[in-house]
């Protein structure tokens, strides 16, 4: 059985996406996609790669995602799906690249510095 793999990352989330020819079942960490991302509106954007290439319903996806929150995980899955689709057919690049689906979002959380309340937030100044 042929299988295609893509890794996606966003913030602290890492998604491993395996695509196999099938009828469009998407399983995330052992749960159905809709059940895993229950109530997360942005999660449907994770499937944008399938929609852009017209392959929605043609591949089963088995996804393992670790770390981060729902938004970071959904975006990591989006990148993983796009990279896996590229291995299936390199011609999909023309549909995926202009929509930014092959670009890894480099933004990470800035670390907290000592003497401050957050990364940049200074303690409240008191004159007296």
UniProtKB/TrEMBL annotation:
Residues 114-128 have a biased composition (Basic residues). One of its GO terms (molecular function) is RNA binding. SUPFAM superfamilies: Ribosomal protein S5 domain 2-like (SSF54211). It holds the Pfam family Ribosomal_S9. HAMAP family: Ribosomal_uS9_B. The lineage of its organism: Bacteria, Thermotogati, Deinococcota, Deinococci, Deinococcales. Keywords: Ribonucleoprotein, Ribosomal protein. Belongs to the universal ribosomal protein uS9 family. GO terms for cellular component: cytosolic small ribosomal subunit. PANTHER family: RIBOSOMAL PROTEIN S9, SMALL RIBOSOMAL SUBUNIT PROTEIN US9M. It comes from Deinococcus sonorensis KR-87. GO terms for biological process: translation. The keyword Zinc does not apply. It comes from the Bacteria. This is Small ribosomal subunit protein uS9. Residues 99-128 are annotated as: Disordered. Residues 102-113 have a biased composition (Basic and acidic residues). Gene3D superfamilies: 3.30.230.10.
């Amino acid at each position: 059985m042929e299988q295609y793999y893509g890794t996606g990352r966003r913030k602290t989330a890492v998604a491993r996406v395996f695509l196999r020819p099938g009828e469009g079942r998407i399983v995330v960490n052992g749960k159905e996609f809709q059940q895993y991302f229950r109530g997360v509106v942005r999660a449907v954007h994770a499937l944008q790669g399938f929609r852009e290439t017209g392959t929605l319903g043609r591949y089963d996806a088995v996804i393992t995602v670790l770390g981060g929150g729902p938004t970071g995980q959904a975006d990591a899955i989006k990148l993983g799906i796009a990279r896996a689709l590229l291995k299936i057919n390199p011609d999909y690049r023309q549909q995926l690249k202009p929509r930014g689906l092959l670009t890894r979002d480099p933004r990470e959380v800035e670390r907290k510095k000592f003497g401050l309340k957050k990364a940049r937030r200074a303690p409240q100044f008191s004159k007296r």
